[in-house]
Amino acid sequence: MVSEQWIAGVDLGGTTTKIAFINLNGEILHKWEIPTDNSNEGQNITKNIANAINQKLADLNEQKTKLIGIGMGAPGPIDYETGVVLNVVNLGWKDNFPLQDSLHSLTSLPVVIENDANCAALGEMWNGAGKGARDIVCVTLGTGVGGGVIANGDIVRGINGAAGEIGHITSIPFGGAPCNCGKSGCLETIASATGIVRLAKDELLKAETQGQLAVIFAANGSVTAKDVFDSARNGDEFAQQIIQEVGFHLGFVLANIANTLNPEMIVLGGGVSRAGDILLDKVNTNFSNFAFSAVKESTTLALATLGNDAGVIGAAWLIKNKLNL
Question: How high does pLDDT run on average in the chain?
Protein backbone atom coordinates (compact mmCIF):
# COMPACT_ATOMS: atom_id res chain seq x y z
CA MET A 1 0.00 0.00 0.00
CA VAL A 2 1.18 3.51 -0.81
CA SER A 3 0.33 4.62 2.74
CA GLU A 4 3.15 2.40 3.99
CA GLN A 5 5.73 3.92 1.69
CA TRP A 6 8.26 6.59 2.57
CA ILE A 7 9.64 9.78 1.08
CA ALA A 8 13.30 10.75 1.43
CA GLY A 9 13.59 14.39 2.49
CA VAL A 10 17.00 16.04 2.03
CA ASP A 11 18.12 19.42 3.38
CA LEU A 12 21.37 20.31 1.63
CA GLY A 13 23.61 22.69 3.57
CA GLY A 14 27.08 24.03 2.99
CA THR A 15 28.56 22.03 5.89
CA THR A 16 26.16 19.15 6.53
CA THR A 17 23.30 17.49 4.66
CA LYS A 18 20.29 16.33 6.67
CA ILE A 19 18.39 13.32 5.37
CA ALA A 20 15.17 11.75 6.67
CA PHE A 21 12.68 9.04 5.78
CA ILE A 22 9.22 10.53 6.21
CA ASN A 23 5.76 9.01 5.94
CA LEU A 24 2.83 10.49 4.04
CA ASN A 25 1.57 12.20 7.20
CA GLY A 26 4.73 14.30 7.40
CA GLU A 27 6.18 12.37 10.33
CA ILE A 28 9.92 11.65 10.51
CA LEU A 29 10.63 7.93 10.91
CA HIS A 30 14.41 7.98 10.57
CA LYS A 31 16.81 10.91 10.27
CA TRP A 32 20.55 11.36 10.06
CA GLU A 33 23.12 13.67 8.50
CA ILE A 34 26.28 13.43 6.45
CA PRO A 35 29.08 15.94 5.78
CA THR A 36 28.66 18.00 2.59
CA ASP A 37 31.73 17.38 0.43
CA ASN A 38 32.11 20.51 -1.71
CA SER A 39 35.57 19.58 -3.04
CA ASN A 40 36.15 19.00 -6.78
CA GLU A 41 33.37 21.45 -7.72
CA GLY A 42 30.90 19.51 -5.58
CA GLN A 43 31.10 16.38 -7.73
CA ASN A 44 30.61 14.04 -4.77
CA ILE A 45 27.55 15.72 -3.23
CA THR A 46 24.81 13.81 -5.05
CA LYS A 47 26.83 10.55 -5.03
CA ASN A 48 27.17 10.78 -1.25
CA ILE A 49 23.44 11.47 -0.80
CA ALA A 50 22.47 8.52 -3.02
CA ASN A 51 24.92 6.24 -1.19
CA ALA A 52 23.68 7.41 2.22
CA ILE A 53 20.07 6.65 1.28
CA ASN A 54 20.98 3.19 -0.04
CA GLN A 55 23.07 2.43 3.03
CA LYS A 56 20.29 3.47 5.43
CA LEU A 57 17.76 1.30 3.57
CA ALA A 58 20.19 -1.63 3.88
CA ASP A 59 20.71 -0.94 7.59
CA LEU A 60 16.92 -0.96 8.08
CA ASN A 61 16.57 -4.12 5.95
CA GLU A 62 14.23 -2.26 3.57
CA GLN A 63 14.03 -2.47 -0.21
CA LYS A 64 14.41 0.61 -2.42
CA THR A 65 10.77 0.14 -3.47
CA LYS A 66 9.90 1.48 -0.01
CA LEU A 67 10.75 4.97 -1.30
CA ILE A 68 8.42 6.83 -3.68
CA GLY A 69 10.76 9.75 -4.29
CA ILE A 70 13.33 12.24 -3.02
CA GLY A 71 12.56 15.87 -2.22
CA MET A 72 15.47 18.20 -1.62
CA GLY A 73 15.94 21.72 -0.37
CA ALA A 74 19.07 23.45 -1.66
CA PRO A 75 20.45 26.94 -1.02
CA GLY A 76 20.12 29.64 -3.66
CA PRO A 77 17.70 30.24 -6.51
CA ILE A 78 16.34 27.09 -8.16
CA ASP A 79 14.63 26.56 -11.51
CA TYR A 80 11.77 24.54 -10.06
CA GLU A 81 10.67 23.09 -13.40
CA THR A 82 14.07 21.60 -14.21
CA GLY A 83 15.65 21.25 -10.75
CA VAL A 84 18.66 23.28 -11.86
CA VAL A 85 20.52 25.28 -9.19
CA LEU A 86 21.08 28.63 -10.89
CA ASN A 87 23.93 29.80 -8.67
CA VAL A 88 25.21 29.03 -5.18
CA VAL A 89 28.35 30.20 -3.49
CA ASN A 90 29.35 27.52 -0.96
CA LEU A 91 28.79 24.12 -2.61
CA GLY A 92 31.53 24.24 -5.25
CA TRP A 93 29.10 23.83 -8.15
CA LYS A 94 29.32 25.94 -11.25
CA ASP A 95 26.26 27.99 -12.16
CA ASN A 96 23.26 26.08 -13.55
CA PHE A 97 24.09 22.78 -11.89
CA PRO A 98 21.55 20.06 -12.92
CA LEU A 99 20.86 18.82 -9.38
CA GLN A 100 17.56 17.07 -10.11
CA ASP A 101 18.91 15.13 -13.11
CA SER A 102 22.09 14.23 -11.24
CA LEU A 103 20.27 12.74 -8.25
CA HIS A 104 17.63 11.02 -10.41
CA SER A 105 20.29 9.34 -12.56
CA LEU A 106 21.98 7.99 -9.42
CA THR A 107 18.82 6.74 -7.70
CA SER A 108 16.24 6.15 -10.49
CA LEU A 109 13.68 7.77 -8.17
CA PRO A 110 11.48 10.82 -8.81
CA VAL A 111 13.32 13.91 -7.55
CA VAL A 112 11.99 17.40 -6.85
CA ILE A 113 14.28 20.30 -5.93
CA GLU A 114 13.28 23.52 -4.17
CA ASN A 115 15.01 26.40 -2.41
CA ASP A 116 15.83 25.44 1.20
CA ALA A 117 13.98 28.37 2.79
CA ASN A 118 10.90 27.50 0.74
CA CYS A 119 11.17 23.93 2.02
CA ALA A 120 11.25 25.17 5.61
CA ALA A 121 8.08 27.16 4.91
CA LEU A 122 6.39 24.11 3.38
CA GLY A 123 7.41 22.00 6.37
CA GLU A 124 5.84 24.44 8.82
CA MET A 125 2.68 24.55 6.67
CA TRP A 126 2.39 20.76 6.38
CA ASN A 127 3.15 19.67 9.93
CA GLY A 128 4.36 22.63 12.01
CA ALA A 129 3.27 26.02 13.33
CA GLY A 130 1.25 26.76 10.20
CA LYS A 131 -0.55 23.41 10.03
CA GLY A 132 -3.92 23.91 8.39
CA ALA A 133 -3.10 27.38 7.01
CA ARG A 134 -2.67 27.96 3.28
CA ASP A 135 -1.34 31.53 3.27
CA ILE A 136 1.93 31.70 5.20
CA VAL A 137 5.17 33.64 5.20
CA CYS A 138 8.06 31.79 6.85
CA VAL A 139 11.14 33.77 7.89
CA THR A 140 14.29 31.88 8.88
CA LEU A 141 16.56 33.87 11.18
CA GLY A 142 19.92 32.13 11.18
CA THR A 143 23.39 33.08 9.99
CA GLY A 144 21.46 34.99 7.33
CA VAL A 145 17.76 35.67 6.88
CA GLY A 146 15.81 33.42 4.53
CA GLY A 147 12.17 33.51 3.54
CA GLY A 148 9.45 31.44 1.96
CA VAL A 149 6.06 32.71 0.80
CA ILE A 150 3.09 30.35 0.43
CA ALA A 151 -0.12 31.63 -1.18
CA ASN A 152 -3.17 29.38 -1.33
CA GLY A 153 -0.98 26.38 -0.53
CA ASP A 154 1.59 27.01 -3.27
CA ILE A 155 5.11 28.42 -3.03
CA VAL A 156 5.48 31.86 -4.63
CA ARG A 157 8.66 31.54 -6.70
CA GLY A 158 8.64 34.58 -8.96
CA ILE A 159 9.88 34.73 -12.53
CA ASN A 160 13.43 33.65 -11.68
CA GLY A 161 12.88 31.57 -8.53
CA ALA A 162 14.10 34.42 -6.31
CA ALA A 163 10.81 35.39 -4.62
CA GLY A 164 10.85 35.41 -0.83
CA GLU A 165 14.33 36.93 -0.43
CA ILE A 166 13.09 38.63 2.72
CA GLY A 167 16.59 39.00 4.13
CA HIS A 168 17.45 41.36 1.30
CA ILE A 169 14.58 43.76 1.76
CA THR A 170 16.21 47.09 2.51
CA SER A 171 15.53 47.99 6.12
CA ILE A 172 17.95 50.93 6.34
CA PRO A 173 17.59 52.86 3.06
CA PHE A 174 20.57 55.16 3.56
CA GLY A 175 23.82 53.88 4.97
CA GLY A 176 23.51 50.64 6.88
CA ALA A 177 26.01 47.82 7.03
CA PRO A 178 27.18 46.14 3.82
CA CYS A 179 25.51 42.80 3.05
CA ASN A 180 27.07 39.76 1.37
CA CYS A 181 24.63 40.28 -1.52
CA GLY A 182 26.43 43.50 -2.48
CA LYS A 183 23.79 45.90 -1.18
CA SER A 184 23.79 47.76 2.13
CA GLY A 185 21.15 48.06 4.82
CA CYS A 186 19.47 44.69 4.16
CA LEU A 187 17.33 43.18 6.92
CA GLU A 188 19.86 40.35 7.07
CA THR A 189 22.52 42.78 8.35
CA ILE A 190 20.38 43.40 11.45
CA ALA A 191 18.01 40.50 12.18
CA SER A 192 20.36 37.55 11.55
CA ALA A 193 22.62 36.08 14.22
CA THR A 194 25.52 37.68 12.36
CA GLY A 195 23.76 41.04 12.34
CA ILE A 196 22.91 40.91 16.04
CA VAL A 197 26.53 40.15 16.90
CA ARG A 198 27.69 43.03 14.69
CA LEU A 199 25.28 45.47 16.37
CA ALA A 200 26.53 44.35 19.79
CA LYS A 201 30.23 44.50 18.94
CA ASP A 202 29.96 47.95 17.35
CA GLU A 203 28.73 49.30 20.68
CA LEU A 204 30.84 47.09 22.96
CA LEU A 205 34.00 48.44 21.37
CA LYS A 206 33.01 51.78 22.87
CA ALA A 207 34.62 51.60 26.30
CA GLU A 208 31.71 53.15 28.23
CA THR A 209 29.36 50.19 27.66
CA GLN A 210 28.57 48.34 30.90
CA GLY A 211 26.53 45.33 32.00
CA GLN A 212 26.54 41.54 31.65
CA LEU A 213 27.17 41.60 27.91
CA ALA A 214 30.16 43.90 28.34
CA VAL A 215 31.58 41.49 30.94
CA ILE A 216 31.22 38.55 28.52
CA PHE A 217 32.84 40.56 25.75
CA ALA A 218 35.74 41.59 27.98
CA ALA A 219 36.33 37.97 29.01
CA ASN A 220 36.01 36.32 25.61
CA GLY A 221 36.71 39.08 23.11
CA SER A 222 33.44 38.19 21.39
CA VAL A 223 29.73 37.60 22.03
CA THR A 224 27.04 35.46 20.43
CA ALA A 225 23.43 36.27 19.60
CA LYS A 226 22.46 33.92 22.46
CA ASP A 227 24.63 36.01 24.83
CA VAL A 228 22.66 39.09 23.77
CA PHE A 229 19.29 37.47 24.47
CA ASP A 230 20.41 35.88 27.75
CA SER A 231 21.84 39.19 28.97
CA ALA A 232 18.63 40.99 28.03
CA ARG A 233 16.57 38.49 30.06
CA ASN A 234 18.85 39.20 33.01
CA GLY A 235 18.11 42.91 32.82
CA ASP A 236 21.10 44.15 30.82
CA GLU A 237 19.83 47.47 29.42
CA PHE A 238 22.35 47.55 26.58
CA ALA A 239 21.33 44.06 25.40
CA GLN A 240 17.69 45.10 25.64
CA GLN A 241 18.40 48.09 23.40
CA ILE A 242 19.87 45.78 20.73
CA ILE A 243 16.77 43.57 20.80
CA GLN A 244 14.63 46.71 20.60
CA GLU A 245 16.45 47.69 17.41
CA VAL A 246 16.19 44.20 15.91
CA GLY A 247 12.50 44.06 16.82
CA PHE A 248 11.89 47.42 15.18
CA HIS A 249 13.42 46.48 11.82
CA LEU A 250 11.93 42.99 11.78
CA GLY A 251 8.48 44.23 12.75
CA PHE A 252 8.66 47.01 10.16
CA VAL A 253 9.62 44.67 7.31
CA LEU A 254 7.13 41.96 8.29
CA ALA A 255 4.31 44.52 8.49
CA ASN A 256 5.04 45.67 4.95
CA ILE A 257 5.18 42.07 3.72
CA ALA A 258 1.84 41.44 5.44
CA ASN A 259 0.37 44.63 3.98
CA THR A 260 1.25 43.23 0.55
CA LEU A 261 0.21 39.59 1.04
CA ASN A 262 -2.14 39.48 4.05
CA PRO A 263 -1.04 35.99 5.11
CA GLU A 264 -2.86 34.06 7.80
CA MET A 265 0.45 33.52 9.62
CA ILE A 266 4.02 34.72 9.66
CA VAL A 267 6.20 32.00 11.13
CA LEU A 268 9.62 32.88 12.56
CA GLY A 269 12.17 30.05 12.55
CA GLY A 270 15.93 29.56 12.64
CA GLY A 271 18.34 29.78 15.55
CA VAL A 272 17.58 33.41 16.40
CA SER A 273 13.87 32.60 16.81
CA ARG A 274 14.78 30.37 19.76
CA ALA A 275 15.10 33.59 21.75
CA GLY A 276 11.32 33.23 22.06
CA ASP A 277 9.03 35.85 23.53
CA ILE A 278 11.76 38.35 24.39
CA LEU A 279 12.17 38.87 20.63
CA LEU A 280 8.64 38.04 19.47
CA ASP A 281 7.06 40.60 21.82
CA LYS A 282 9.18 43.41 20.33
CA VAL A 283 8.45 42.25 16.79
CA ASN A 284 4.72 42.07 17.52
CA THR A 285 4.68 45.61 18.92
CA ASN A 286 6.35 47.06 15.85
CA PHE A 287 4.32 44.89 13.50
CA SER A 288 1.16 46.36 15.04
CA ASN A 289 2.51 49.89 14.62
CA PHE A 290 3.17 49.47 10.89
CA ALA A 291 0.51 46.98 9.72
CA PHE A 292 -2.67 48.14 7.99
CA SER A 293 -5.59 47.70 10.40
CA ALA A 294 -7.29 44.85 8.50
CA VAL A 295 -3.94 43.07 8.20
CA LYS A 296 -3.13 43.57 11.88
CA GLU A 297 -6.43 41.92 12.82
CA SER A 298 -6.04 38.90 10.54
CA THR A 299 -2.33 38.03 10.47
CA THR A 300 -0.75 36.15 13.39
CA LEU A 301 2.97 36.02 14.18
CA ALA A 302 4.15 32.68 15.58
CA LEU A 303 7.36 30.84 16.38
CA ALA A 304 8.26 27.83 14.24
CA THR A 305 7.78 24.46 15.91
CA LEU A 306 9.79 22.08 13.71
CA GLY A 307 13.27 23.48 14.36
CA ASN A 308 15.93 21.91 12.15
CA ASP A 309 13.44 19.33 10.88
CA ALA A 310 11.40 21.86 8.88
CA GLY A 311 13.62 21.57 5.79
CA VAL A 312 13.48 17.78 5.40
CA ILE A 313 9.72 17.67 6.10
CA GLY A 314 9.05 20.41 3.53
CA ALA A 315 11.30 18.66 1.03
CA ALA A 316 9.27 15.47 1.45
CA TRP A 317 6.06 17.46 0.88
CA LEU A 318 7.39 18.32 -2.60
CA ILE A 319 7.14 14.66 -3.59
CA LYS A 320 3.75 14.18 -1.93
CA ASN A 321 2.45 17.21 -3.81
CA LYS A 322 4.02 16.23 -7.15
CA LEU A 323 2.51 12.73 -6.99
CA ASN A 324 -0.86 14.05 -5.70
CA LEU A 325 -0.81 11.75 -2.69
Answer: 93
- Does 266 lie in the same domain as 166? yes
Q: Is residue 78 a contact partner of residue 161, using CB atoms and an 8 Å limit?
A: yes
In this structure, what CATH number is given to the domain that contains residue 195? 3.30.420.40
157 and 289 both lie in a single domain = yes
Termini Cα distance of the chain = 12
Q: Fill in the amino acid letter for 1.
A: M
Q: How many domains does the chain have?
A: 2
Question: How many other C-beta atoms lie within 10 A of the C-beta of residue 3?
Answer: 8
Where does the pLDDT of residue 207 fall: very low under 50, low under 70, confident under 90, or very high at 90 and above?
A: low
Q: Are residues 138 and 269 in the same domain?
A: yes
Tell me, yes or no, if the pTM score tops 0.85: yes
Q: Give yes or no for a contact between 311 and 18, defined as CB atoms under 8 angstroms apart.
A: yes
CA pseudo-torsion sign 263, 267, 272, 273: positive
Q: Which domain holds residue 241?
A: 131-305
Cβ-contact 116, 310 below 8 angstroms: no
Going by C-alpha positions, the residue among 242, 173, 165 that lies closest to residue 203 is: 242
Nearest Cα neighbor of 146 from 208, 188, 84 is 188
The secondary structure of 236-262 as a DSSP string is -HHHHHHHHHHHHHHHHHHHHHHHHH-
| Count of Cβ atoms closer than 10 Å to residue 205 Cβ | 9
The values of phi and psi at residue 82, to 5°, are: -110, -15
Distance, CA of 8 to CA of 106 (rounded, Å): 14
Residue 71: burial class (beta carbons within 10 Å; 0-12, 13-18, 19+): buried
Q: Are residues 139 and 278 in the same domain?
A: yes
